[in-house]
Specification:
mainly alpha; globular; 259 residues
């Protein structure tokens, strides 16, 4: 144990002291990202919320990614700044992670409080995470791209969301098992700092495992990355614009007509 204590948590282990520092940096990072997103950044609304949520989950790591890949360096430069494929793919990953990780964290907290076994916990997390990602962050925010049709957006979003979600879980599940079922069983309790530290680390690992498939999904036009309301309007990307930006997507979409 460390010599430190907090009124609510009581005496702190050294790992708790580290986590208190990490969460303090997380709050500062999220506050800055939220302020910059909603006052300075011409990014689409769904991506603003995505960056804020993911920064709450990943802390300073997400703050660094935001500055490197999305923060407008100078007025009027955002369109060119976010154009590279690696930044578009990162935006696609953040978009996915904001929905999936939110659902997973909500489900993990509920199942832990209910005392459900780990195997059932994982099933619930997968279903809820996929539902949050598909029905909210993908289909709901993409319906304007599909002429206002939520059903059409849902059909268009299903496959890319399923592929991306599976890669998020491919990273998060092993991380959660290793971190939550190790020597410090406090990581199984949502009332403990170790639980939230484990979730933060698992989300970061999930982002890393989901990124490669999002590079491919953006390149072939199955997902979109980042853009600006100046260029795309409040409704966001259209499939025709995506085909213009990525030649691979255009060639794939035209292949059935030329065969």
């Amino acid at each position: 144990m460390s010599p430190f204590a907090l009124p609510i948590l009581g005496p702190l282990a050294w790992i708790d002291v580290v986590l208190v520092g990490w969460f303090a940096l997380t709050l500062l990072s999220a506050a800055y990202v939220a302020w910059d997103c909603f006052t300075n950044n011409p990014e689409l609304a769904v991506m603003k919320w995505g960056w804020v949520l993911v920064t709450l989950y990943m802390g300073p790591l997400a703050f660094i990614l935001y500055v490197l890949a999305c923060k407008e360096a100078a007025p009027g430069t955002h369109e060119e700044f976010v154009r590279p494929l690696w930044k578009q793919a990162l935006g696609s990953t953040i978009h996915c992670l904001a929905g999936d990780a939110t659902g997973i964290i909500v489900a993990a907290t509920a199942t832990a409080l209910l005392g459900l076994p780990m195997w059932l916990d994982f099933i619930v997390e997968y279903v809820v995470g996929f539902a949050f990602g598909l029905f909210l962050f993908q289909a709901l925010f993409m319906k304007d791209m599909m002429g206002g049709s939520y059903t059409k957006a849902l059909r268009h979003s299903f496959l890319p969301e399923w592929l991306s979600m599976n890669m998020v879980m491919a990273g998060m599940y092993p991380a959660m098992v290793l971190l939550m079922m190790g020597r410090d069983m406090r990581a199984m309790e949502p009332t403990e700092l170790a639980f939230w530290g484990s979730m933060s680390a698992a989300v970061a690992i999930g982002a890393a495992t989901a990124y490669p498939v999002n590079v491919w999904l953006v390149k072939v036009g199955l997902k979109h990355g980042m853009g600006t309301v100046r260029a795309l309007g409040k409704g966001g990307h259209s499939r025709d614009l995506e085909r213009q930006r990525w030649p691979t997507a255009a060639s794939m979409s035209q292949a059935p007509h030329t065969a």
